Structure formats: structure tokens, C-alpha cells
Amino acid sequence: MLMSFMSKVLDPLVKFLQVYTHMRALIDPYWLTVGSASLVQFILFLRWLYRRIRNDEMTRAFVEDMATNHLPHIYGVLERISEQKGIEHAPLPPIRWVDWRSS
After folding, report:
1. What are the backbone angles phi and psi of residue 94, rounded to the nearest 5°?
2. Residue 77 lies in a domain
3. Range of the domain at 72
4. Torsion sign across C-alpha atoms 58, 59, 62, 67
5. Would residue 100 count as lying in a domain?
6. DSSP assignments along 60-76, one per residue
7. How many domains does the chain have?
8. E strand segments, 1-103
9. How far is it, in rounded angstroms, from Cα 11 to Cα 95?
């Protein structure tokens, strides 16, 4: 009776220790170093990717703002200056902003 009880208690413990020894073989300090360095590199890559996407968004917003808000005013001022100086100028080019994201 005592032996069957001990085997019930000790069998899971023995199996756990066997799995634990296999896991210790896999968790070599060199693998831990390689894994942590790889994780840091991946995090730095994600950070770079986020900044790159964010920079592209800011550039796009700047160009859109220039095209829609500032260029008409710049063309108007240049037209008045050319009229004051007596310089003939071509008609103003149409400013068309195509938003590719909405399609």
C-alpha cells in the first residue's frame, strides 16, 4: 500500500525532473545570449519601421498642405509682382491633389 502511494507521488516528480533536465540542456547560456540579442535587434527594427512610417506620413501631410494652402497664395503674389514689373506670364497651372488613400 505504501509503495503504490509512493509510486503515485514519485512518478510525476520523476517525469518533471526528466523534462527539466532536457530543458536545462536547451537553455545554454550561449543560446540565451543569442536569443536576447535577437530580441533587442527585433525591437530596434520595429522602432525604426515605426519612425520610417511616421516620417512618411508627416512628409505627405506637409506636401499636401503646401499644395492645397500655400501654392495658390504664392502664385497670386507672383502674378501681382509680374504685373507690377510688366512681365507677361502664363496662366496659372491647375493644382490638383490626388488622394490615393481614399480610392
Report:
1. -70, 140
2. yes
3. 2-86
4. negative
5. no
6. HHHHHHIIIIIHHHHHH
7. 1
8. none
9. 80
Residue of 98, 19, 94, 13 lying closest to 60 (CA atoms): 98
**Structure confidence at residue 46 (pLDDT):** 95
Those residues whose C-beta lies under 8 Å from the C-beta of residue 68, and which sit 6 or more positions away, are 95, 97
The amino acid present at 29, given as its one-letter code, is: P
3-state DSSP helix/strand/coil percent for the chain, to nearest 5?
A: 85, 0, 15
Say which residue the cell 547560456 belongs to: 29
Please give the Cα distance from 67 to 96 (Å, whole number).
Answer: 8
- The DSSP 8-state label assigned to residue 90 in this structure reads P
Q: What is the pLDDT of residues 12-65, one digit of tens each?
A: 767 776 766 666 666 667 777 888 899 999 999 999 999 999 998 898 888 888
Q: Which three cell numbers stand for residue 89?
A: 506670364
* Contact indicator for 92, 75 with CB cutoff of 8 Å: yes
Give CA–CA dist 60/72, Å, rounded: 18
